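Supplementary Text 2. Reproducibility record for the structural model of the 716-residue chain.

All settings were left at their defaults, and a single model was retained for analysis rather than an ensemble. We include the record here because the model underlies the residue-level annotations in Supplementary Table 4.
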Amino acid sequence: MVIVKYMTENQVIEKKEFKLEVVMYLKEVQIRNYKNFLKARFLFQKGVNVVIGENDSGKTNLMQAIRLVLDKRMDWRDKEISEKMFPDMLDDWRGHIIIISLRFAELDENKEEEAILKYLSGNQNKEGALTWFCLPDSRMRKELSECRNQGELCECLKKITINNYTSIITCGAYVDFLDDEIYEKMVGKLESGICAFTEKLNESFYGCEGKTGFNGIDFIRNKLVDFTYISALRDAVNDMKQQYNPLMTMLRQIETKISPSDKEKVENLIGSVNDTIAGVEEVKKLSEGINNKILESVGNTYAPDIMLRSEVSGDIKDIFRKLKIKSKQNKEFDLDTIGLGSTNIIYIALKLMEYSYVKELEEIQSKYFILLFEEPEAHLHKHIQMALFEKTGIDVNEGIQVLMTTHSDNISASSKISRMNIISKGNKGSRVMQPYTGLTAEEIMHIERYLDVKRSELLFSKSVILVEGDAEEILIPVMVKKCLGISLDELGVSLINIGSVGFSNIYKLFHDTRICKKCAIVSDLDTPIDSSDSGQKIAYERGKERKEKVECESKTNPWIRGFFGQYTFEVEMVRGNEEYIDKLIDKTYKNDETKSKKKNALRDSNVEKYGDIALKLANANKKGWNAVMLAEILDEKCSIPDYILDSLCFVAMDEMLEKRNYLKMLRSYGVQYNDVNILTLIASEQDKTLKDILELIPIENRDKTVPRVLFKAVSK
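Retained model, structure tokens:
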């Protein structure tokens, strides 16, 4: 009970009492050995939560995992145990177990089902767990436990088939299943000949299977949670036509609330309509005509006396079931004729409303509701996507929790990183990350405001390069594509222009405890080219400070690294690109003498001279537009500054060393420089390593961009 006192300067003028309602929610999902998850921990908050990730990262598998525990209406084909449930990363699935554990928080001890779950879990923090296991059946566990040595265990494991496996759901299992020591105590170290299985399951690990009746698992599952699953492959039009579509469910609920007087009005109106239809002259004539034909056919003795009578049902239930969604403006409006986008908007809105209407129905016994929603962005343009996310109208105090999966930049930009799980694909299965871990509330707030649609793509990419200028943002992707023959997108690299925000405010996202992706910080030291320019000196001091800060951070954080040009980006771009900048000079200046002087200065060894030309050129065109003009001039033989290539090697080395990618780059090099040996070698499909292939490149060509970046990658 909370007491609220409304006070003036001298006295209490009002006092109110109210009870704060504590609503349970799904706090955590632990998954072990299920599909592409070897070990995964998802953390959720009340209200709307977002799970983001690239295609095939495991978003749908998460939804299926939750359904295996909770969905009593799940199709048996989706629940059927198969070898495909085990991840490919396991050397051999035999003898291993699948664990999917759902952890609920803020359980109310006044609610029977929640109190039982808390009690069985033995947790003092008002938390409890429901867990789905796929494991060897009792007969096979007994056989495994009787193996006396590694050889016997090995032979026993070999003969296991999926038919020797069973699935169970338990409550009360509250150990950390992602802890390898716990897993070994449950299963053993099978590869070492150690088996921990027993015929009877140890309840301290596996929890309680329950009994039929009051303490049964079904009782807890029925009463604890109800939910709706909206598939990414949904057919909104078809679903809206089904008997138990969201609209019909809500209409069923309000049928019981209609007053007797309203029912009587409707029945009287329907009766009047039936009488009016029967009294229509043409209907009466047809009725008499049918009667006459019957008399002609069988005579008066056997002829039944019939009439045509309208029997539009006056039953309020029948009438409600004929209600359809129509447009106020368009009479021709129908679900079959409107676009998929509009249909999905209607369908989603109905789904979001459904629970508040059906929670009082007898079949909905629980007071807590989860909406599992895959890819809400399907068929919706970006503005609707963002509005949908921001305006779901979910009230956490009503006991509604939403888990959304998406790969939409628009939705991720509108979401909060404090309610976000990121799935990243890897060689050892998908990894789950929470980008807010260890950050202060203020830091989280700043980052959430910063992540607009454009910048939120860093949440989806394999790796990230941060730059702070328009010129870098414009030119680097162009140079990489033209010089290397492969794009940043193909390498899974997002290049993000942070502007004046400051690197440290963003790169803190990349950390062992947050987003485990490589992040390169590309910046300039801004070394003065004119020692008399005080502005350049100040910029240089800032550049040194920025570099020191990044280098200090990277000593303890392997996910970030700084790459700094000695001068500004425009100055760094001069060497190796003089002929392209010549063309830019031609486009910028009109006087031939001026053009000639500037072109000669470009080739001077003194940075003060060629750097001055580069800076004045950028100022004349404005930096961003100068980069746009230069991007139009550059071709495949332009030169990428070394520090930028180094940053690319850092974030995308693994991707560049994938055979299909490095062969694509080498093919591009071969075409650019007419290297017949390289092209022939690639075409012949000879089994050679990348290092072997690079050794075939002529010495004079090894400073070209493709060899340079691949030699860098191989050497690392």
